[in-house]
Amino acid sequence: MSRNSIFFLTDYGRRDGFVAACHGVMMSIAPDVRVVDLTHDVPPQDVRHGAVVLAQTLPYLPPCVVVGVVDPGVGSERRGIAVVAGDHVLVGPDNGLLPWAAAAAGGVAEAVELVSPKYRLAGEAMTFHGRDIFAPAAAHVAVGVPVSRLGPAVGAGDLVRLPEPKVRARPGVLETEVHVVDHFGNVALAAGPDDLAASGVGAGQRASIVRGGPAGPDSATEVVVGRVFADVAPGEMLLYVDSHRHVALAVNHGSAAARLGVEPGDQVTIRVLAP
Predict the structure, then answer these.
(1) Where are the domains of the chain?
(2) pLDDT for residue 122
(3) Cβ atoms < 10 Å from Cβ of 164
(4) In this structure, which of 46, 101, 207, 255 has its CB flanked by the most CB atoms within 10 Å?
(5) d(Cα 210, Cα 219) in Å, to the nearest integer?
(6) Which DSSP symbol is given to 62?
(7) Nearest CA among 25, 6, 115 for reference residue 67
(8) Pairing of strands 206-211, 237-241
(9) Does domain 5-158 have CATH number 3.30.70.1350?
């Protein structure tokens, strides 16, 4: 099955020629395939951030190949893999970057290790697998090469996975983790709408946010529970469900991450305030 698009995500940035080199390799192998930059602004070495972006974006993409390269272990013993999930093929390092996206596409149907020399560049560099291994593999798949030809099968259960975020909901309290912080400083939490409902937190209420556990050391920040940014005045904080179905925190015309001093992986406790 050929696919006419390759979507490309990395932490390479745009200052150097890394992205262009990968584009050149893919275009040389698959000149009629469109290469679309998903983003190259993943924070350096932040595998979790890249995994979240892929998982959030993949359900909205047409059948395609996705190359993800956030690879602090490049040159080590970590595998390069290709994963079939739904109508998509995901190519990248076996470091937890791809499984959340695969799950969002219906789960891993097939996975292989990228070892066949026929589908990588000759004389590969130990420190640039994006150009020499992942880009060529993606381009060959895009023009119809079966994934099974890229290397031996890997069991879905053998893929490296990131730790699942912790969420605990009980009446009046929701304990969760910061999942990702976006460009605007909005803070997406690991909890979803069902967790919010289980805690009894609903629109129109007020809640307190504490960074840390239930007895965390930080002072509480009061927020309004709403649906859209305009539910609070400029400069005020809102708790809402975002477009990816995550419970989230935002400051209208500001940065919730800066206000709270949080980053991905931090624990946050939300507590309903009495009317």
Answers:
(1) 5-158, 168-272
(2) 87
(3) 9
(4) 101
(5) 6
(6) P
(7) 6
(8) unpaired
(9) no
- Considering only CA atoms, give the Rg of the chain: 21
Identify the segments of the chain with pLDDT beneath 50.
Answer: 215
| Confidence (pLDDT) at 144 | 95
Q: Which of 35, 154, 6 minimizes the C-alpha distance to 83?
A: 154
What is the amino acid identity at position 270? I
- Would you mind telling me the total number of residues written for the chain in this entry? 275
List the end-to-end C-alpha distance of the chain, in Å, as a whole number.
58
Structure tokens at 237: 């904080």
Task: Give the orientation angle of helix 135-142 with respect to helix 18-29, to 10 degrees.
Answer: 30
Q: Is domain 168-272 in CATH 2.40.30.90, yes or no?
A: yes
Cα gap 17→170, rounded to integer Å: 50
Identical fold between 5-158 and 168-272:
no
Contact status, residue 264 vs residue 203, Cβ threshold 8 Å: no
pLDDT on residue 220: 85
pLDDT digit string, tens, across residues 219-228 = 789 999 999 9
Q: Which two tokens stand for residue 93?
A: 């390092």
SS3 171: coil
135 vs 199: CA distance, rounded Å: 45
CB neighbour burial string for 130-162, b if at least 16 within 10 angstroms, e if fewer: bbbbbbbbbbbbbeebebeebbeebeeeebbee
pLDDT at 215: 47
Distances (CA, A) of 171 to 99, 202, 217, 239, 272: 32, 12, 22, 17, 9
Residue 151 has phi, psi (to 5 degrees) of 160, -175
